[in-house]
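haha ok so turns out i had the wrong file open the whole time. this is the CORRECT one, sorry everyone. sequence first:
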Amino acid sequence: MENIPANLISLAAFSLVMLVALLLLTLKNRLSGRIIELTQKTNSQELLLLELQTQLMQTQKQLLENTQQWDEAQLENEQVSKQLEHRIKVNQEQFSTQFQTIEQLLHQQPEDKLYSRAQKLVELGADIEEIMRECDIPRPEAEMLLAVHRQQSNKS
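then structure:
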């Protein structure tokens, strides 16, 4: 090494330092570019995450509103259903009462007709035998109709 001039060693060392510096600079530029690229991707992902969180919050809010509306509608439907059930029950009771009344009237009408006819016969002067035969009523009832007619006639 004694044969190598000091200038040449200095030049070689300087070249080596420059080469290392150039390599470090190139590596720094590559890493800086990669860091910038990763930073941009991270920022983009953060923006996307914020957008997704906002959409999630909006969706949850809409879901809550829809659930409340559904609950209110269900409550209203239950109330309407109860009212309708009550009305149906009342209508069924009224129908049953009216049906029973009609049944009673249907069963009473033939008897009423017989007594109305007997009353007419009494007013026309029919005797007990004719009233019993024509109206198919027992003697005591025919006698009672005649007695009532006589009392009314005597009062008049």
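The helical segments are 6-123, 128-135, 139-155.
again sry for the mixup
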